[in-house]
Design brief:
By secondary structure, the protein is of the alpha+beta class. Helices cover 30% and strands 28% of the residues. It has helices spanning 14-21, 24-27, 38-49, 99-114, 129-138; strands spanning 5-8, 58-65, 71-80, 83-90, 119-125, 141-142, 153-159. The chain has a 7-stranded mixed sheet, with helices on both faces. The longest helix is centred in the middle third of the chain and has 16 residues, at 99-114. It starts with a strand and ends in a 7-residue tail after the last strand. The model has no long low-confidence stretch (mean pLDDT 94). It binds coenzyme A (COA). Residues 26, 29-30, 87-90, 95-101, 122, 124, 128-131, 133-134 line the site of coenzyme A (COA). Coenzyme A is lined by residues 26, 29-30, 87-90, 95-101, 122, 124, 128-131, 133-134.
Length: 166
């Protein structure tokens, strides 16, 4: 399995992003589980290029590419005070290669390097077993204070190691 390279999202990633957001397999456990409309894809992508304006959240999106520069995944970081929320999508043809695990490890490194901790958060649907496995392997645990027997979503958190000196 090749190592992915991860770079900030660019305007010409739109087609790749739209294909993911309009693929039922990708959005099955995302939001209400339906494919994104063209208008919603455009809005979310524009916000990401704009680092979150006008929502005033701080968004950092990254695209993961193979060594042949084929895009295979999206990593989305949303910064909140004291916490960075992560999201990750891998193109279905590329599932099962450990790519999502690489992306989550990248998110951990980025958050440590930039002081975007001390916590990372991931919201994962209960039935999304592959995604649960990905964050659990990296050390995320379900935040029991937010866990509700009736909710379909689980909140996973990881407290980052102290980067030292900050
Ligand atoms: C979830 C997703 C990101 C996983 O991507 P991936 O690159 O295939 O993940 P990885 O290969 O790094 O790891 C998947 C792990 O889940 C396991 N897995 C895969 N399918 C599984 C299933 N149905 N049940 C249990 N475990 C499963 C794999 O065996 C692997 O664990 P292992 O390394 O211990 O063997 C990908 O399926 C995806 O993009 N889904 C749609 C978007 C999404 O749901 N994103 C997450 C939102 S929280």
């Amino acid at each position: 399995v090749p190592n992915l390279s991860v770079r900030p999202v660019r305007a010409d990633d739109f087609t790749f992003f739209r294909a993911l957001a309009q693929d039922e397999r990708v959005v099955h456990y995302v939001g209400d589980g339906t494919e994104w409309t063209d208008a919603y894809v455009e809005q979310r992508f524009a916000d990401a290029l704009d680092h979150g304006a006008p929502s005033h959240r701080d968004l950092r999106w990254y695209i993961a590419e193979t060594p042949a520069a084929v895009p295979v995944g999206l990593l989305a970081l949303t910064r909140h005070p004291g916490e960075t929320e992560i999201g990750y999508w891998i193109a279905p043809d590329s599932w099962g290669n450990g790519y999502a695990s690489q992306l989550v490890e990248h998110a951990v490194a980025v958050a440590i390097d930039n002081g975007w901790g001390p916590r990372l958060e991931a919201t994962v649907h209960r039935d999304n077993l592959a995604s649960r496995r990905v964050v659990e392997r990296v050390g995320f645990v379900v935040d029991s204070s937010t866990e509700s027997a009736t909710s379909a979503e689980l909140t996973y958190r990881l407290t980052l190691p102290d980067s030292g000196g900050q």
